[in-house]
Amino acid sequence: MKVVAFNGSARKNGNTAMLVGYVFEELEKEGIETELIQLAGEHPHGCIACYQCFKKKNKQCIVDLDCINACIEKMDAADGILLASPTYFADISTEMKALIDRTGMTARANGDLFQRKVGAAIVARRRGGAIHAFDTMNHFFTIGQMITVGSSYWNIGDGREKGEVADDREGITTMRDLGRNMAWLLKKIKG
Ligand SMILES: Cc1cc2nc3c(=O)[nH]c(=O)nc-3n(C[C@H](O)[C@H](O)[C@H](O)COP(=O)(O)O)c2cc1C
């Protein structure tokens, strides 16, 4: 079994990546393979609304200039998907929005490609707007016939400078509980 995570932060290996890391530790303890894909520096383009994905139905986005088609393949091959973003102006990053719009539309054009995969959203924030970002990412799972996993709090970690989430004990507990719940669910439905 495999879980793939996408870090939408504009900076690599920051708080968002660290939050994913705590979830991964719990998944790996249960023997589940993990992979982190960081969108920083990849400059994924937004959806161009051409609807070619509905005409071609080949599980690919026609805008084949960036990492998005590789991301679709990673999602398609995984049993679980984590979408992780920092909070930017009370919502997700531009990179995460491009990922959601293009992978999500391609999935819809191909008969809900990711249906019944297990998904969860993760958010890093300095102070406010994280719930909005969390909700934005959850729309990807719930329209795609995916199964979302909860935790002991909403999946949010606090920090501004790189590494500061390591001081957010409740955030770390939330991530570890999320990882354990995701592993439990994956084993129930895939085992
Ligand atoms: C453009 C920009 C907008 C931001 N807007 C918010 C915000 O609305 N609310 C908030 O709590 N933090 C905001 N932040 C802070 C980041 O969410 C926070 O530093 C986060 O930990 C960054 O995660 P990273 O280390 O993975 O990049 C913003 C940061 C940037 C660069």
Describe how the helices and strands are arranged.
Elements lengths: L1 E6 L7 H15 L3 E6 L13 H5 L11 H10 L2 E7 L7 H16 L8 E8 L4 H14 L3 E2 L7 E3 L10 H22 L1
Parallel strand pairs: 1-2, 1-3, 3-4, 4-5, 4-6
Helix pairs in contact: 1-6, 3-4
The protein binds flavin mononucleotide.
Largest sheet: 6 strands, parallel
Looking at the overall shape, the CATH architecture is 3-Layer(aba) Sandwich
Multimer state:
single chain
> What structural class do you assign from the helix and strand content?
alpha/beta
Q: Which ligands appear in the coordinates?
A: flavin mononucleotide
Helix content: 40-55%
And the CATH topology?
Answer: Rossmann fold
- By DSSP (H or I, 4+ residues per run), the number of helices equals 6
**Which homologous superfamily in CATH is the superfamily?**
Flavodoxin domain
Total number of beta strands: 6
Can you describe what's shown?
- The chain is α/β, with parallel strands linked by helices.
- It contains six helices and six strands; from the N terminus they run βαβααβαβαββα.
- The protein has helices at 15-29, 52-56, 68-77, 94-109, 130-143, 169-190; strands spanning 2-7, 33-38, 80-86, 118-125, 147-148, 156-158.
- Helix 3 (68-77) packs across helix 4.
- The longest helix is centred in the C-terminal third of the chain and has 22 residues, at 169-190.
- The chain is globular, with a radius of gyration of 16 Å.
- Flavin mononucleotide is lined by residues 9, 11, 14-16, 86-90, 124-129, 159-160, 162.
